[in-house]
Amino acid sequence: MTGPARRVALTGPTGFVGAAVLDELLKQGFLVSALTRRAQPARDGVTWVSGGLTDEPALGTLVAGADAVIHVAGLIKARRRAEFFAVNKGGTARLIAALGGRKARFIHLSSLAAREPALSGYAASKAAAEVLVQASPGLDWTILRPPAVYGPGDRETLVFFKAARRRRPFLPGGPRHRTSLVHVADLAAAIVAAIALPGLSGRTAEVHDGAADGYSFAEVLGMIGGGPGQPRPVFVPGGLLRAAGGAVWLASLATGGVPMLTPGKARELAHPDWVCRDPTLAEAGWRASIPASRGLAETRAWYEAHGDLP
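The structure assignment produced for this chain is given below.
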């Protein structure tokens, strides 16, 4: 790609991460073609394209004239493994096919879970999508793997903020289990920066806040704060987590709901090491600007202001 990208095609622009990416793109002066399954209000700099990852004509319209493609959309919860693969791998394949071999910068948002594909259908589907991206002839790709993403408005990590309110919160895993974190604004900044950062073409990079050894879950609760004194967590062993995930999953088959806790998700939660140690982004010149101590406290304050926390 010659010169800076001016028009970017974006999938998932109405989700938690995708909306932050859209804001970052507009802040930096990009024009954006954004894929959406629901009608959206008009917005300066945005051309809304109606459709989803199964709609091949819509994907063709989305990428037409784009200098770069940012693929954020994906499935994070499902009842069956095949559903993850249909969206996370199949949707990626159709998006790449829509380019028709045309040169364009391709930023693929994966997950740190792809590092452990045996844990769950979600992790396996993200790993499979990465392989597909890497194997696409002529594609100028970069794959970004975030760990746990948090920030104002997120519904998936709210459970940990609620746990920090309790004196004896239940937490997955054990006291030695550790994870990296990244604020959604930092993740969005990294995704947009990757379009033009030298040295990232053909590379896979982990995105995190820069804490070298991540955090224990107890440390995360302490940084969230806002509860009556320091919480003393009770850790739920992996076997019990998996049993609970199985029970929730079986119940979902009867109710038709889509559960967040499944046996696969339980295995992910019980995995002891979700720490990012890859230096690729730092070597390319990008570093996060929001430390977890500040970002978690500010996110807690947002939840409080919006009535999500008592």
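Interim note for the steering committee: The radius of gyration is 19 Å. The longest strand covers residues 31-36.
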